[in-house]
Amino acid sequence: MEFPEPTVLVFRTSIESEKDIKIVTHYLNNHKAIFSWNLDLEDWENILRLEVVNTIFTRDIIKNIKRLGYECEELH
C-alpha cells in the first residue's frame, strides 16, 4: 500500500501561551489529515507548522483555528 507524500503548511497565528495550545490541541490531534504539528511560541509570529496529507484544505484549517478564537494566516 502506498501512502501520499505529506505536505508542510506554515501559518502565522495569535496563539501565545500554553493555555492557548491546550485549546487547539484537541482539534489538531483529532484531524484525520494532520500527521503532526508544532507551534513555535518563541517566533514573533507564533508559527504553527502542520504536516498533512495533500487532501487538506488550507482555508479549512484557518477557519477552524479562527473558530477557536485565534488569528491564523498561511505563510508562503
Description:
The protein has 76 residues and is an alpha+beta fold. It has a single domain, classed as 2-Layer Sandwich (Alpha-Beta Plaits). The protein is built from 2 helices and 4 strands. The chain has a 4-stranded antiparallel sheet, covered by helices on one side. It is globular and about 40 Å long. The chain starts with 6 loop residues before the first strand and ends with a strand. The model has no long low-confidence stretch (mean pLDDT 91).
What's this entry about, in short?
The protein is built from 2 helices and 4 strands; from the N terminus they run βαββαβ. The protein is α+β, with helices and mostly antiparallel strands and 76 residues long.
Topology summary:
Blueprint: E1 7-13, H1 18-30, E2 34-40, E3 47-52, H2 58-67, E4 72-74
Antiparallel strand pairs: 1-3, 1-4, 2-3
Indicate the overall shape: globular
Largest sheet: 4 strands, antiparallel
Name the beta content range.
Answer: 25-35%
Radius of gyration: 12 Å
Give the topology string: H per helix, E per strand. EHEEHE
**CATH fold name, please?**
Alpha-Beta Plaits
CATH classification class = Alpha Beta
- The counted number of beta strands is 4
Count the DSSP helices.
Answer: 2
The separation of the N and C termini measures 32 Å
Kindly name the structural category: alpha+beta
- How many domains, in number, for the residues? 1
- The stretches of 5 or more residues where confidence is low (pLDDT under 50) are none
Helix content: 25-40%
Strand order, largest beta sheet: 2-3-1-4
CATH 2nd-level architecture: 2-Layer Sandwich
Q: What's the pLDDT, averaged over the residues?
A: 91
